[in-house]
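User: As part of a screening pipeline, I want to sanity-check one entry by hand. Below is the sequence and the SMILES for flavin mononucleotide. Please return the complex as structure tokens so I can compare it with the automated output.
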Amino acid sequence: MKVVAFNGSARKEGNTTILINQVFEELEKEGIETELVHMAGKPIRGCTACMECFANQDKRCVIKKDAVNEYIEKMIDAQGIILGSPAYFATVTTEMKALIDRVGLVAFANPGLLEQKVGAAVSVARRAGSFSVLDVLNRFLLCFGMYVVGSNYPNMSIGLDIGDVLKDEEGIRTMKVLGGNMAGLLKKVHG
Ligand SMILES: Cc1cc2nc3c(=O)[nH]c(=O)nc-3n(C[C@H](O)[C@H](O)[C@H](O)COP(=O)(O)O)c2cc1C
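Assistant: Here is the complex for your manual check:
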């Protein structure tokens, strides 16, 4: 079983990565394979609304010059998907929004693409905006027949500088519980 996580932050080794790795630790304890994909440094463009994915129905986006099809492949191959984004002006990063729009349209054009996968959203903010981020990410996950996992508090933490989230004990605990819950659900659905 495998979980792939997408880090939408502009910082590869920032707080979002630290939080996702906390979730990964718990998944790995349960023997679940993990892969972290950094979206930083590999620009992807937004959806052009060409609607070719509906005509082709080949589980691909017609825009071939960026990594979106590689990301779709990784999602298809995994049983679990984590979307992580810091709050940028109280919403997801530009990279994460582009991913949602591009993958989302391909998933609508190819019914069942993400069905019954286990999904989770993770967010971090200096102070405000994580609820909006989780709202955007969860709405995406809930659109395609995925099972969305929670923790014992919303899947968020606080921090500005890299490493700040490690001082947020409750946030770290939330990620660990999320990892345990995700492992449990994955085993029930795909074990
Ligand atoms: C362009 C930009 C916009 C941001 N907007 C917000 C915001 O709206 N609310 C907030 O609390 N923090 C905001 N922040 C702070 C980040 O959410 C915070 O530094 C977070 O820890 C970054 O996560 P990362 O280390 O994974 O990149 C912003 C940071 C940047 C670079």
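Points to compare against the pipeline: The chain is about 40% helix and 15% strand. The chain has a mean pLDDT of 98.
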